[in-house]
Amino acid sequence: MKWIVGVAMIAIAMGWAATVTIPAATVTIDPTSLKFLPPETQGLAVIDVAGLVGTPLVQDAVKNRPLIQNGPPDLQEFITETGIDPMKDIHTVTVAKLGMNDSFFVVQGRIDKFKVQQFLADKGKQQDAYLGQTIYYDKDGAIAVLDNLLLFGQADAVKKGLDQMQIPGSSPLRSDLLAAIQTIDAGNQIWGVGDVSVSDLPATGLRGPAPVMDMLKTLQRGTYQMRVDTGVHIRATGSFADADSAKNISDMATGALAIAKLQVAKGQPDMVQALNGIQVNNSGTTLTLKIDEPGDLLKKVSHGLNGLTGKIR
User: pLDDT by residue (tens digit) across 24-65?
Assistant: First the structure.
């Protein structure tokens, strides 16, 4: 199922590679995705792929660095065989976390059900009928193909999503998730809320001094929101089990930023300006990260890093 994970990761990469005045309204979960979310949902994330692709910064990034053409072979084959282009045909990706190793993706867009099913069948994927849908298995993963929608993830999680779809109306999510969603501003193309642990962090194989790792293990839940236009504005919060952990990590992050600025002050002024756009602070058990970077500055820093990499090679 690497080709489907590639679809989701491309959407995420476009968001990370590239936000303005924060609107007062808050986000909502689209009804289609909501009907798959069971009451035991511990966290969720939403990626507005169509919204990202339409922004000037992402358009420029795609023009200069075509992600699809450089994608994994499995994704290339999927695009060729189904005619689905993630950059044009994928509209929204919703990720639901049900447990430590139990999650699924809801991918919406212009998806030809017949072509995708034929592709999976041609790949020899094991099939099984479940609640009127055909589930295709790939090791411990599974995928169900509906009209203009893909549901994939761990097999048990996919079945829970299909179970929930059969229930009239939508069951209420946990009250703390609903409250967290109310803190996410409308207009953010990427956002997420819910339970989080060190194993959920983007940095795979995260390592560090034992005291730091022990403090990170007290991370319990968080929120993330990002809006992209001609620049990037990110706001993330993390709630820890105790105030000392939040304060200590905030202090260490602030110190690391100060050291980084000193190290690049003379040779890389653009990098200093970029580092100035990063703020970390804490209040009680909550740590807050804010990143505010103009698109033009990001391009300069990127070009500078590419040039440095070329010299090293």
Answer: 588 989 999 999 999 999 999 999 999 999 898 888 877 765
In what order do the strands lie in the sheet containing 133-138?
Answer: 126-130, 133-138, 141-146, 149-154, 102-109, 90-99, 43-48, 190-195, 219-228, 231-240, 286-294, 278-283
- For residue 148, the cross-strand partners are none
Query: What's the token pair of residue 64?
Result: 């200069």
Answer whether residue 25 is part of any domain. no
Q: State the Cα–Cα distance between residues 219 and 286, nearest whole angstrom.
A: 9
Structural domain that includes position 225:
175-312
Q: Which two tokens stand for residue 49?
A: 């792929």
* 208-241 pLDDT tens trace: 566 667 777 888 999 999 999 889 999 999 999 9
pTM, two decimal places: 0.84
Q: Residue 239 falls within a domain, yes or no?
A: yes
Phi/psi for 75 (5° steps) reads: -70, -40
